[in-house]
Predict the structure.
Amino acid sequence: MAANLNGLVKRLRDIMRMDSGINGDAQRIEQIAWILFLKVYAAKEEDWEMEGDYESIIPEPYRWMNWAADDGKGKALTGEELLDFVNAMFRVLKDLPVTPDMPKKKTIVKTVFEDANQYMKDGVLLRQVVNTIDAIDLSSYENIHALGDIYETILKDLQSAGSAGEFYTPRAVTDFMAEMIHPKLGEKMADFACGTGGFLTSWLKGLAPQIHTPEDQVLYNDSIYGVEKKPFPYQLCITNMLLHDIDEPHITYGNSLMKDVLDYTDRDRFDVILMNPPYGGNEKADVQKHFPADLADSETADLFMSVMMYRLKKGGRAAVIQPDGFLFGTDNTKANIKKKLMKEFNLHTIIRLPGSVFAPYTSITTNILFFNHTGPTKETWIYRLDMPEGYKHFSKTKPMQLAHFAPVMAWWDQREEIEKEGWPKAKCYSADEIEAKGYNLDLCGFPHEEEEILPPHELMAAYQQKRQDLNRRIDTILAEIEKEMGEPS
């Protein structure tokens, strides 16, 4: 079965490439996503019906087994008839009656389809796609896990599917961050821009070995919380959670930035937060108004940093990916955010990641910040993770692996300062030193960069990003000079 699944995505792509209604990988993957969701949801409904009194929220004609299954006798819908049926089904599922007391496992159907799209124009090809997905056998534990692996390949393909790539964080990175946070059964973990659910699944992977009783299973099922504002990754995330046996996924379709951070209470806070917030985006004034004036910024990643601080429980642990611009930025807002972070939280570790970790989607250089809500920062360790030997850069065919984090994992518990070729690779800085630098955390950086030969579109993106970074650095230096001169910035 696993061998058959390995060619699943290729078979589906080959079929959809012949359909004039689909343009590019992003739409092909979105088409696969809603069909796969219905297939997985149908398998879950079979389990729920066996467990006791269960009534589907999906009207009978539109349940998977009543229209998607093809017994080969020529009775299955196809052609224009199938297109008309699916278009009618979309209207029905988008308008499902939902009540406040309805369980999440039912309401997710309406939410998943609210902004879903049916792109295919050829009903015969659509039947072939449905038949290919319907042939997946989800009756065994092994097959479900095999499909989980295939699902990972679908998510990885997002990296080369245009802007959809922003929804995927390399699994090696999410696994490393979750492992360093040390998942504990009974804790609740959140990701307020969860995309396809990469951090949620890495957290669940860390919890799974701790399940020994039915009570442990309940704690496991209730341990995650996610928010995603874009319909496509939300759809993928819900399917991802169902594949991981989370029958009531606490995944909200919405924007985490659209609530006043000062209104959060203890019930809104979490033991652990793991995030890779969107960066490079600009938020309008109606979003910024939800933050205190000294923390209000147009940069999306900065605002999510504040959300994390306001929603982390006392004693809680967090890890977040931030671009270089956050580290070296000393303009008022960025400095204020980092000042709050260090004065109220323990920013104990920063891991500087090598370039191209997110290739080919972006060449932006990133860092992982680890902090706890256990009091102010006294010292911060900064560790530079160099490119592994034999690599000039990561790529789709040579992505970063968890094994590449081995040096920092070995260093983590036995910390020591390291110098390499005359440059600091690992160094401890006191909070006073960092404050004296205006909260510029651009420390233990990469001493030099080897020339990389990249495809033209990646090369242009890299140059554009470097130009943006350089402009930010120039702005930072000018602001510092004006401050020293006593002139208004």
Summary: DSSP finds 19 helices and ten strands in the chain. The mean pLDDT is 87. The first helix runs from residue 2 to 6. Residues 62 and 444 are 58 Å apart (CA to CA).
